[in-house]
UniProtKB/TrEMBL annotation:
Pfam families documented for this protein: Amidohydro_3
GO MF term list: hydrolase activity, acting on carbon-nitrogen (but not peptide) bonds
SUPFAM superfamilies: Composite domain of metallo-dependent hydrolases (SSF51338), Metallo-dependent hydrolases (SSF51556)
InterPro entries: Amidohydro_3, Formylmethanofuran_DH_asu, Metal-dep_hydrolase_composite, Metal_Hydrolase, Metallo-dep_Hydrolases_sf
Organism: Xanthobacter dioxanivorans
UniProt-listed Gene3D superfamilies: Urease, subunit C, domain 1
The protein's name in its UniProt record: Formylmethanofuran dehydrogenase subunit A
Amino acid sequence: MRTRITGGRVFDPANAIIDQVRDILIEDGRIIADAPPAPGEDVIDATGAIVLAGGIDLHSHIAGGKVNLGRLLMNEDRLLHPEPFGDFCGCGGGRAAPTTHATGCRYSQMGYTAVFEPAVVGANARHAHLEMADIPNIDTGGFLVLGNDDFLLRLIAQGEGQQAVNDYVAWMLRATQCCAIKIVNPGGINAFKFNGRALDLDETGPFYGLTPRRILNTLQRAVSELGVPHPIHLHGCNLGVPGNVKTTLATIGASEGFPLHLTHIQFHSYGTEGDRHFSSGSAEIAEAVNANPHISVDVGQIMFGQTVTASADLMSQYRNHKIADPKKWIGMDIEMDAACGVVPFNYRDTSFVNALQWAIGLELFLLIEDPWRVYLTTDHPNGGPFTSYPHLIRLLMDKPFRDDHLGRIHKAARAHTRLAEISREYTLEEIAVVTRAAPARTLGLRDRGHLGPGARGDVVLYEEQPDREAMFAAPRLVLKDGKVVVVNGEVVELVDGRTYAVHPPYDPLMDKRLERWFDEAVGLKANHYRIADGEIRNGQGPEIVELNP
């Protein structure tokens, strides 16, 4: 079946096509080279529309144990935001912690067709994959959390060498069917088990005697040598702590030239200047990112309103639970290898800290010069629900709109930000980069994030409107693999997505070694821990991302 989308203004920065009126031709779910009209092809008139590839969210907590705990903790969220009844919906709901069905519907209604869960704990990986398979209309993938697991820390502490670490990392990626490695507070969660309440980059942790720097560098080298496309996805030390800008700058300096992705950088950009001892470090962070082309970031923008934070960084969440709003929280251990903290937050523009956090995130977006190295996220749900993306896009594209909001926030916060001095407005090309082309490139997804021949037939038509929030909230049309799934912002079809994974090779001796480890130290067998290809997407199996060793 062939579909022709004609007459729209195409923005496809990955192929250097910017604001050109041209046809997009889709056949059997993929975009093909333009060709003369053929009898029987479907024609979609895109006149007056902006044509983009399907959106890709690099970092959004959509599935797995902590997300499920968030849903349990925030049951009022579903009552306040029920799924509307209709031909395709009517079950579940929620905004801060939406159900799987609502997650897929809300994302596709904004024009997103792929979303990546950035914190899959190995012991919970099967649960995460089952939930991702239940999300309609979007493709997914998971980032495996390492850096506090005892087997890895023991390998490093005992000096077993880089190849042993590489084999372990490859085994874990294969076993959990994930596509990248994330580190959460390297060594910090393990230190928490020994009553550690803080661990800086060059501070030696208890028991294993390792610094976060050493853990980070070891895993950076492993990912690079295995050829995993996405670099280490790092949630660094001292999240949310005033003065952590120094740690973040030191972390950039510690990367030793290896590519490094710093996630939710907004939470790691705080100084201690001023009478309130809380200030913006965005200028220093942006300057460092601009000067180091091997560094990329996603922002984790704060959006005002109710949400729930869910993180493997129990050290940080334990610190934050005293300011939970409403007053309830969950903290737990997971197989002694990882942890989880779930704390509800209500970000208020009348709060000095929250208002300055909001401004810091926007400063980072606007001061980092290369849009290919900064990705649009709210660290859903930690900075705010992903449904706030259209509002965030307008804040980036519309300075008068941004200034109007700046004028409403806490007065003292306004005095601590240089946001009013920044005149930059994102262009449509830059929005296409930060929400499509750049995430696809860093994840190694060659058939996504663009509209060239061979790309997936994920295409979005947005009605050109001066109000960018309205424009990006309700696309005229969304096609997933060539099928129309959304019309004028309403879901009209539910389709299955796919799951991305990497399968790097490893020494088979690691099988025996980990079988012994699981028997001796873990509450389940290694064979049960490993997820078979046939368990992914109801037997469909994963789509394997090509390695670049």
